[in-house]
Amino acid sequence: MLDQITVSRMKQTLRESIDNNEISGANMMIIKDGQEVFYHEDGLADREAWTPISRDSIFRLYSFSKPITAASVMILVERGVIDIYDPVSRFLPGFKNQKVAQNGELVPAVREVTIHDLLSMTSGLVYGGEDLAGKATGELFQEIERGLYSDAPINTLDAMNRLGTFPLFFQPGASWQYGSSADVLGAVVEVASGMGFGDFLQKEMFSPLGMTDTGFWVPDAKRSRLTKTYENTPDGGMQPYTGNNLGILQKMDREPAFESGGAGLVSTIDDAARFTTMLMNGGTLDGAQILKPRTVRYLTSSTLSASQQQAFEAWNSLSGHSYGNLMRVMTDTSRSGILGSLGEYGWDGWLGAYFCNCPSDGLTILFMTQKRDAGTLPITRKLRNIVFSNL
Fold first, then answer.
1. Are 12 and 39 in contact, with CB atoms under 8 Å apart?
2. Given this model, what pLDDT does residue 331 score?
3. Rounded CA gap, 167 and 107, in Å?
């Protein structure tokens, strides 16, 4: 699939990004028709200690956690435990009798927020902002962060039940807004399954798939493999970023009380590939069936209505895409700012962890780095453009 010229171009492009202080280091994997056809690592996991990125480097996934959370919901949908149109208040009583912030006032929600709303980010929940909904949510995450090292940190259920009492940004289902919906889904899974969210993921997904380095924290024995996070300095250099964000402890050195379905997981590129390959295989990997093929098809489809799609399209870098079940889905290759294929899906994380699955091409691309405010970086788009142009 990849000739030597293409491989050299990819390695050179990544090296230039590192030399230009766009990132400190990264690793990348390409899987074609179920077989790994490319792996490359370059740069440093710890610039101060001169520790190189390696294949077993552990990365904070941040929003790459969201598709994993969506898959966990679908496990319970398959079993008849969750109905996609269940009101969230069935599991979290804090979501009863919600209000919507409208023109500076609070009005009753016309209907309850549902699991479907959470999966499609059409719930009216946000991450932060200057409006009533954003301020309340931002303050909650700050409170979670202040308690990370306390004797009584806020746990998943308490945090999400409190979130349910805050104003919504819009009426449920009326629009689209990226926000804290996936965190709520983690709490829903906890209640519906009768076990901690992390325990459910371990039992139903990580252990069967052999994802041995994936979880909500990093034990002492693995701490040396946790990649540092970096940010740019005003003069174009790089420095470590040590802050916490969205209730996630940057050091990852203790089991958290708040297990964030939207941002809390760490993983390696190989573990991430186990998850993405399971999806490409229709829910199965090495004899372990996590989901059924029809469920995977639903999980990886767009679910937005026309009006919701209009709101989603304000995300300029995702032109040519739609959204569903906590992932982007490419729907129009001519409008997209990247080379790609119809039906490809995936997501990224705040610090740069990224994947896309392209069923029509039998292709998966994984890219792992740790850079503040990264998401899908220019280097990520450049590398995948090189790959797609050679299909």
1. no
2. 98
3. 9
The model's pTM is 0.98
Q: Are residues 164 and 28 in the same domain?
A: no
Cα distance between residue 117 and residue 125, in whole Å: 10
Question: Are the CB atoms for 92 and 160 separated by under 8 Å?
Answer: yes
> The tokens 């409208």 sit on which residue?
102
CA distance 249 to 243: 8
Matching residue, tokens 């304000």: 314
Separation CA 282–CA 144 (nearest Å):
37
pLDDT of residue 1 exceeding 80, the answer is no
Mean pLDDT, the chain, whole residue set = 97
| Residue 389 near residue 50 (C-beta atoms within 8 A) | no
Angle of the 269-280 helix axis to the 65-78 helix axis, nearest 10: 40
Angle made by CA atoms 35, 41, 42, in degrees to the nearest 5: 160
* Tokens 């993983």 -> residue: 267
pLDDT tens for 78-104 read 999 999 999 999 999 999 999 999 988
Q: Which two tokens stand for residue 256?
A: 């958290």
The identity of residue 259, as a single letter, is E
Same domain, 182 and 39: no
At a CB cut-off of 8 Å and minimum separation 6, what does 270 contact? 29, 55, 56, 213
189 & 85 share domain: yes
Residues 25 and 113 in one domain: no
The boundaries of the domain holding residue 93 are: 81-193
- 258, 246 contact by CB (below 8 A): no
Judge contact between 248 and 260, C-beta under 8 A.
yes
Q: What is the pLDDT of residues 128-181, one digit of tens each?
A: 888 899 999 999 999 999 999 999 999 999 999 999 999 999 999 999 999 999
Q: Are residues 183 and 94 in the same domain?
A: yes
- Best CA proximity match to 62, nearest among 246, 282, 196, 254: 246
Rg value, the chain, Cα: 20
Say if residue 383 is in the same domain as residue 289: yes
CATH number, domain at 381?
3.40.710.10
Measured distance CA(264)–CA(276) in Å, rounded: 18
The number of domains in the chain is 2
Alpha helices in the chain (DSSP H): 4-19, 65-78, 115-120, 132-146, 156-164, 181-193, 197-201, 207-209, 269-280, 293-299, 306-312, 378-389
Token pair listed for 313: 């399209």
